[in-house]
Q: What sequence folds into this?
């Protein structure tokens, strides 16, 4: 039921109550059928709905929606439209797919053209990502890492409670779920005070994050976006695994921050959950004390209740074993604040830019979003039901992240972002 007590709307297509891809979600993506060009789609249950063909059928007539905008291998052109247009498309799709809507339901020829069984398509990367920024917005994560590297007294840097710390990342190596990730090689300093060595990272890790895509027209260089403007400028969210080589990171990060420890791969879930679909799950973020500067103040209920999980599988532990359960609402800095801070200098943003939250850790031991924290730098290994132990990732391991918001009788979920660890390239 929704907040008015009305049962949640259902589709004429069968959708399981625990499916992440309910009528209330309708996430955006890109799919391809064998031998055909990729096209934009939305997902409902185990179906991909071909938006290019639906628009060609004239059932998707929306003012301001250019012809052919879904006949693309990425969502970028659609993402560039004003929020009012994408909301109108979303409303139209929701109406067309309802149980009581006959236009598509009762047209077998059209159904064959636009309703693609998910098993018959390849799900591709959804967006041509322009720029990628990674924040560091979980207080628990920043505190845990700070304690490990600087001690409890200096855990949070003096700036941390005043601004959403971040760094500019690498877009070219962002890959969709299912892409295997090769263990990187790099400079390591196994023994403090001694010269570095070159070789495969021994401390490969995941970071559980959620990212947002900027949507709407590009901003002008020199202009800014307020916290309150973000509602019209955030297109949707994906799960992000920010693969990290901790030993490379420890040696290289000072004074300019992460570099090759992070740039070899970042994985994202392929269905972009619309900002609009998450609105019923808004919650207050943790209290911000000291009060942020005025440009970082804004709307209430600016966070979301999104359950997040990480599971590990290995060649011996084939059933994925949960190692982390946490929630998006633990984030101290909100996405709206991240966007406002990113642009406060006049930095322009473009449709398709990705901004990730930083590792999302909660206050509990099992709510830590990286192995670095879960095993406390390897000193407290995780024991798997197979009898194996993990301090960091080993070759052949699989990392699976998932997330969803629970409605009354439906879910708005992200599906998963999954990646296998391949051995490092031989010398
Ligand atoms: Ca990160």
A:
């Amino acid at each position: 039921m929704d907040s008015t007590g009305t049962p949640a709307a259902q589709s004429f297509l069968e959708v399981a109550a625990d499916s992440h891809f309910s009528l209330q979600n309708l996430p955006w993506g890109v799919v391809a059928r064998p031998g055909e060009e990729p096209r934009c789609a939305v997902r409902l249950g185990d179906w991909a709905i071909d938006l290019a063909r639906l628009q060609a059928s004239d059932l998707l007539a929306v003012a301001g929606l250019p012809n052919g905008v879904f006949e693309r291998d990425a969502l970028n052109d659609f993402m560039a439209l004003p929020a009012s247009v994408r909301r109108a498309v979303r409303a139209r799709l929701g109406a067309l797919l309802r149980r009581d809507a006959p236009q598509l339901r009762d047209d077998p020829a059209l159904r064959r053209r636009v309703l693609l069984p998910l098993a018959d398509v390849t799900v591709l990367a959804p967006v041509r990502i322009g720029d990628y920024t990674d924040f560091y917005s979980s207080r628990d994560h920043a505190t845990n890492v700070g304690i490990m590297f600087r001690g409890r007294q200096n855990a949070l840097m003096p700036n941390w409670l005043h601004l959403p710390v971040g760094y500019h990342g690498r877009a070219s190596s962002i890959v969709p779920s299912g892409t295997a990730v090769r263990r990187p090689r790099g400079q390591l300093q196994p023994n403090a005070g001694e010269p570095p060595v070159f070789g495969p990272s021994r401390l490969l890790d995941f970071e559980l994050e959620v990212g947002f895509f900027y949507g709407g027209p590009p901003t002008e260089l020199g202009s800014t976006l307020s916290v309150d403007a973000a509602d019209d400028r955030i297109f949707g969210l994906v799960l992000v695994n920010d693969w990290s080589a901790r030993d490379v990171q420890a040696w290289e990060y000072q004074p300019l921050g992460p570099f090759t420890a992070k740039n070899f791969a970042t994985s994202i879930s392929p269905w972009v959950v619309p900002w609009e679909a998450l609105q019923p799950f808004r919650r207050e973020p943790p209290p911000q004390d000291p009060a942020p500067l005025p440009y970082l103040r804004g709307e209430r209920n600016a966070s979301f209740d999104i359950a997040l999980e990480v599971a590990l599988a290995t060649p011996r532990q084939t059933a994925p074993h949960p190692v982390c359960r946490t929630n998006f609402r633990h984030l101290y800095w909100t996405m709206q604040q991240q966007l406002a801070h990113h642009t406060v200098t006049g930095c322009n943003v473009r449709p398709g830019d990705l901004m990730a939250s930083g590792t999302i850790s909660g206050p509990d031991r099992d709510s830590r979003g990286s192995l670095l924290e879960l095993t406390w730098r390897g000193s407290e290994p995780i024991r798997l039901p197979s009898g194996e132990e993990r301090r960091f990732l080993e070759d052949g391991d699989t990392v699976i992240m998932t997330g969803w918001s629970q409605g009354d009788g439906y879910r708005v979920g992200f599906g998963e972002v999954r990646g296998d660890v391949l051995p490092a390239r031989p010398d």
